[in-house]
Amino acid sequence: MPEKSDTTAVPSIVKPDEQWRTELTPEEYQVLRRAGTERPYTGEYWDSTTEGVYECRACGQELFTSNAKFDAGCGWPSFFAPLAEDRVRYIRDESMGMARIEVLCAACDSHMGHVFEGEGFDTPTDQRFCMNSVSLRLKTI
After folding, report:
1. Which terminus of the chain is more exposed, N or C, with fewer CB under 10 A?
2. 130-139 tens-digit pLDDT
3. Which active-site residues does the annotation give?
């Protein structure tokens, strides 16, 4: 499992909460800035097979590629690895009565989703980065 990132790291993109509220839709704000979750099988990218790079919807940092995307059958876009480890940050999340690892954009600290390990998927890392479609924007190649 990825190690918990340094929680004292300062993101390179810092904006006041009111600015985030004006730049994001209410749904984007709820997920990206308040760690909400979209309902499964409703997001724009959960079943997308379009080639490209997935970037953070809040700041545009490139986070995942379609080459690392796979169908986990969970209703959310799933990836077996980020584009590079320095693109994401991990923090322990004990909400919802369980211990999980939350994935944040390293540039702006926006919530992307969670990463799970050891679920038996036939991927190079045996990890499932379960991301919210609303946290991502697909840039096609």
Report:
1. C
2. 999 999 999 9
3. 130
Backbone angles phi, psi at 117, to 5 degrees: -135, 155
Tell me: the pLDDT tens digits for 74-120? 999 999 999 999 999 999 988 877 788 999 999 999 999 999 999 99
- Long-range CB pairs of 70-74, under 8 A, 24+ apart, other chains included: 70/121, 70/123, 71/47, 72/119, 72/121, 72/128, 72/130, 74/40, 74/128, 74/130
C-beta of residue 56 within 8 angstroms of C-beta of residue 63: yes
User: How many separate helices (H) and strands (E) can be counted in the chain?
Assistant: 2, 9
- The single residue listed with the structure tokens 């984007």 is 28
Q: Where are the beta strands (DSSP E) in the chain?
A: 52-56, 62-65, 69-70, 78-79, 88-93, 100-105, 111-117, 127-131, 136-140
- Residue 48 corresponds to which tokens in the numbers above? 């997308």
Contact 61, 105 (CB under 8 A): yes
